[in-house]
Each structure stands twice: as structure tokens, then as C-alpha cells.
Amino acid sequence: MSDLMDLYQEVILDHNKQPRNFGPLPDADHQAEGYNPLCGDQLKVYLKLAGDVIEDVHFDGSGCAISKASASLMTEAVKGKTLAEAEELFGGFHDLLTGDPSVRAEAPAKLGKLAVFEGVREFPVRVKCATLAWHTLQAALAGDSEQVTTE
Ligand code: ZN
């Protein structure tokens, strides 16, 4: 188990240091800003849709390692997915972090790399860091131009 935790930590550190899909998306057709006042994480999510498929997704901003790595992994996870699939991933991710353990049992397999955040559930304050990018993604899809916050 501790080997697994080391691996998880490595993935998070890697994505924090070299975030994927980082920077504005010039031809984005949806975008939103998210803010987590508890930690000071601030990020912006940019989307380009093709029908109901997320053709491209980028993010930028600044925040703690968890929020940045989570945003980076989120962009990888939802790119090329339909909106329904992305919504399902967020549901699974949310359950992993906050749900009861029985729901959680089968989540990791479906979530792929997103499962690296499992350890975050022990730190409720950090859950907001990890879910910020996802809430911001939802706001972008909903067309909310106002900033969303985790509070
Ligand atoms: Zn944070």
C-alpha cells in the first residue's frame, strides 16, 4: 500500500511540476474561472466543444500542488470524452474523495489516473483543492461567466 501511495505522490508531483494542457486555449468556446478561498487556488478552464464532445481543454492559473495536479489530470481525463462521460468521471471522482467507502470500492478502476487523489479524502480541506478544476469545468460548460468558488 505504501508503494502505491508513493506512486500516487509521484504522479501528483509530476503533474504539478509539468502541468499538461497548461495555458490559454485561443479558440476556446467555453471558459470559466474558479477560486478556492480556503487555499487561494485560482484557475481558469478553457474548453472547445465539437457537438457534445470535449475536443480540447486547457487550464491556467496558480494554486497549490493538489489543485494544479488535479486540473492537469482532469484535462487529460476529459479530453475526447462526451459531456456525459465527463460528468460521470466527475461523479466518480467526487465519490472517491467524499463518498462512503462502499461506493468508493469500484471507483478507482473507472477513474484511471484520477485515483491518485484517493489519499486526499483524509484531508477535507484539500478535497476542495482537488475538486476546484472540476467545478470550474462544470461552470464553463454551463456557460457561467462569473467566477465560481468552492465556498
Ligand atoms: Zn489548494
Walk me through what this model shows.
This protein has helices at residues 2-17, 65-78, 83-98, 101-104, 107-111, 124-142, and strands at residues 30-36, 41-50, 53-62, 148-149. The chain has 151 residues and is of the alpha+beta class. It has one domain (3-149): Sufe protein. Chain: A (Alpha-Beta Complex). It has a 4-stranded mixed sheet, covered by helices on one side. β2 (41-50) and β3 (53-62) form a beta hairpin. α1 (2-17) crosses α2 (65-78). The longest helix is centred in the last third of the chain and has 19 residues, at 124-142. It is globular, with a radius of gyration of 14 Å. It binds zinc ion.
Describe, in short, the structure shown.
The chain has 151 residues and is α+β, with helices and mostly antiparallel strands.
Regarding CATH, which class?
Answer: Alpha Beta
As a percent range, the share of helical residues equals 40-55%
Q: Could you give the order of the helices and strands?
A: HEEEHHHHHE
CATH architectural type: Alpha-Beta Complex
Tell me, rounded to a whole number, the average pLDDT: 90
Described by its quaternary structure, the protein is single chain
Task: List all distinct small molecules, including ions and cofactors, that are bound in this structure.
Answer: zinc ion
Strand content of the residues, in percent? Answer: 15-25%
Largest sheet: 4 strands, mixed
Extended strand count: 4
Cα separation of the termini: 33 Å
